[in-house]
């Protein structure tokens, strides 16, 4: 019975994230990784893992959002260079 519940929960979690934007996915991934790292880190040092998870999730979500901004800027610069090369013009940064 526990196996069925775990499989059902995993399936719902996976399908719930299928229609998210890249920003939402990266922010949520960062929060999840940060929560796990925070909980493990505080448990190792005999702290309260719940507070470690909360703090880690906050830091991870912010990091995921910043990483998404970086990837969008990188893609914008790549596309600007690609379009400049395609049109035989000098490459100018979009910023």
Describe the structure.
- This protein has helices spanning 2-16, 22-44, 49-86.
- Helices cover 80% and strands 0% of the residues.
- The chain is an all-alpha fold.
Give a short synopsis of this structure.
The chain has 95 residues and is mainly alpha-helical.
Question: How many DSSP H or I helices?
Answer: 3
User: What is the number of E strands?
Assistant: 0
Largest sheet: none
| Average of per-residue pLDDT values | 85
General shape: elongated
Beta-strand fraction estimate? under 5%
- Please write the string of helix (H) and strand (E) elements: HHH
Uncertain segments: none
Query: Gap between N and C termini, in Å?
Result: 56 Å
Class derived from helix and strand content = mainly alpha
Helix content: over 70%
Cα-based radius of gyration, to the nearest Å: 20 Å
């Amino acid at each position: 019975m526990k196996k069925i519940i775990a499989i059902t929960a995993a399936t719902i979690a996976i399908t719930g994230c299928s229609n998210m934007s890249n920003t939402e996915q990266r922010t949520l991934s960062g929060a999840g990784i940060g929560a796990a790292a925070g909980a493990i880190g505080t448990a190792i040092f005999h702290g309260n893992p719940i507070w470690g998870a909360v703090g880690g999730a906050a830091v991870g979500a912010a990091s995921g959002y910043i990483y998404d901004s970086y990837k969008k800027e990188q893609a914008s610069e790549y596309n600007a260079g690609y379009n400049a090369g395609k049109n035989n013009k000098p490459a100018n940064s979009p910023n």
